[in-house]
Structure formats: structure tokens, C-alpha cells
Amino acid sequence: MNEVNQLWEFLQRLTPLSRSCLLSELERLELCGIDMPGSADIQSKLRAEFRKDGSSQARATNPSRSFFAPLELLLMDGAPEHANMGRISRNTLTPIWEWICRDLLPTMARDYIKAINDHVAANNPKDVQKTATAFQIKVVKVLENTLASPDGTELARAKLGQYTASRFAFDDVTKMLQVLRANAALAKFNEKLPEKISNFDDGQVTQITTRLDAFRKTSPEALPFALALVALRLKTPWQLIRLATKAAPTKTAADIAATPYAITVPMVLDRLDDKRLALRVALKHNRVLIARDLLADIYDTEYALKVRIDEIEPSEWGIRLQQLMDAIAELVAAEVSRFPANVGHILGSRRLRNHDSLAGKLTYLAWKGRDAMQDGAAAFRKLIGQT
């Protein structure tokens, strides 16, 4: 504890922005599974300073929060090292902001921060938004020029590396640039989405697909972010793959992979990986009930992918799915092994795998039978068309 106090005294000599950046870095390392002695106490102190609610989610200052506002719905709390197509790690915002302020546009950033603080003090939200939009445009232009050459890209990567040890944080800079470029299109697309999609049925899939088709004609590079906005509306997130499975002539992995929205499958796998990480954290902190709910969702997603996609096992998607489920099985086995064999553990309950029941197996066969009939009909129509 004395060493922690000494370290804290040293940290107080740093700027608030540097301490906030350190907090994001410590949280990133924890999400990556790296345990550092004394880190929990330091994180607790830093959260008490920067996050009055004690949460583990980054809380930006007013100027940076206004700048990053277009990204808000696309932020996720995992580390940037983990694949998250269409989303941006919240933990990279602090180092990116520090990089913008110190290296990319230091003079303009100072003017921007002063202007935002003045508008906030005057309670003028319209001028806050106007000033933030103007600065976003400036950052986009500078980034486009900087990243136009390999040398500029490497220099930017090196400069950002001074504020975070993550080699993947630069990917979030690229994502940020794509979102800011398509800000108006994404906002318009988001406004037209239903507030909540309880059941992603054929009618809803057709409606959303029509809107996505129009969106990707004008903003193709921002398509993953539009899909991420759709995923936010879904009560059952794995149903995002229906945008791909409904568009495919058959339900085989190869045909689904050839559709414009095939990226929804790796996006669902990304979210499955998020649940794996959340499960590890829940078990680490003995939050068994949270772990139980996470595990039930994981099993539901695994089942849905195997039912909805034929021949998934040998595909890249199937290989990744199996790797994720193997890692999850190891976490569960390690937790269950802590208890005597004659003591049942909630995570070992067969009830979590509802699909292993007789009803679940019959449902699986019914789905596969339906898919086989549809695939056969599609093949017959294709044959008739060729004759």
C-alpha cells in the first residue's frame, strides 16, 4: 500500500489528461488479460478522480466529448486488440485526443478547447455543436493529407504510440476518420431505423436491407458502422446475420459469404468474443450470476449460427466459432473445477444449453429440413432457367 501511495504521489505531478490516458491504458491491459500488481488500487484512485460514478467506462471532458460525439453509438468497452468491425474502442479515445492536441493540430486544438469551454459556460449548445463540427472537418482534412502517404502514416502511428502501447489503436483512428467522413449519412440512416426491433422478421429484414442498399451506394466504406447501428436496435443481436442469410440463394456458408452483407457474420462473432471477455472478467470477480447469463447468451448464439448457416464448420467462420467456444469451455471448466465433484455448479447446468434438450434438437432438425427444401427449390429454379 505504501508503494501504491508513493506511485500516486508521482502520478499527481502529471497532467490530468496524462492520468486519464494512463487509466485507459491500465483498463486496456486488464481487458487483454494482463494482470499488473497494484493496478486495481491505482485504477480505483483514477476512477474516483475522473469518473464520479465509479464506472469503468471512459468519461471524456467537454471539448473531447463534443468532438467524439458522432462516435458515441459506435463505442464499445473492449480493448482495441479484439476484433470489433464497425465499432471503436472507448479506451482509445483518450490517447487519440491527446495525440490530436499535442501533435496533430496543437494550436487549433487549444483554440477549439477554449471556444468549447466558453460556449459551455455561456450555456450555448448550438455553438458547441457548430464549433465541434468545424474542428472535426479540420481534423478530417489533416488526417486525409497525413495518411495519404506511407511515410505520413508511419509517422502518425509512431506519434500515437507515445500515448498508448496498443499496436491496434491506430486502427481506431482510421475508423474515426471513416465515421467523421460519413457523419451526415450515418445520422440520417440512424434516424430512420426503428427504435427497437424485437423480432427481425422477413418484413423488417427487407425494409432494413433496402435502406442499407441505398446507404452503401453513397458511403460504402461506412457500411460496417451502419450495420453496427442496426445491431443496436436488435433485441437478439445474432439476428443481424439474417441480412446475409436472407439475401443468399441457399443457406450454405459459401453462398452467404458471397452476399453484400456477409460481414454481419464476423460482426456477430466479434460480439461473441466480447461475451467471452466479459465472462472471464465476471468469473475473475466471482460474479457467478452475471457469468450464467452471459454463458446462456453465448450458447444461444452458437446454436443460431450452426442452425442458420449450413456447412459452417469447415469455413473460416466455423473455425473461429470453434476456437471461441473452446476458449469459453476452458473458462467454464476452470471455474467448475474449483468445486468438489459432488457439488453442482450453476455454470455446469444443462439448462444453460436449452438446445441440447429434445425440443431443441427437434427445432434444429426442423430448421435444417426447411433449409434443405428451400435450397432444393432454388437449385431446381436455377436448373429450369438454364434449360
Total helix count?
18
Query: What sort of overall outline do the alpha carbons produce when their principal axes are compared?
Result: globular
Ranges where pLDDT stays below 50 over 5 or more residues in a row are 53-60
Q: Please list the strands of the largest sheet in the order they lie side by side.
A: 1-2
> How large, in whole angstroms, is the Cα Rg?
24 Å
What would you call the structural class? mainly alpha
Separation of the first and last Cα atoms: 81 Å
The number of domains? 2
- Beta content comes to under 5%
Order of helices and strands: HHHHEEHHHHHHHHHHHHHH
Mean pLDDT: 85
Main sheet specs: 2 strands, parallel
What share of residues is helical? 55-70%
By DSSP, the count of extended strands is 2
Protein name: DUF2336 domain-containing protein
Report what the structure shows.
The model is unreliable at 53-60 (pLDDT under 50). The protein folds into two domains: 2-181, no CATH class; 236-340 and 351-386, no CATH class. 66% of the residues lie in helices and 1% in strands. The chain has 387 residues and is an all-alpha fold. The protein has a two-stranded parallel sheet with strand order 1-2. The protein is built from 18 helices and two strands. It comes from Bradyrhizobium iriomotense. This is DUF2336 domain-containing protein.
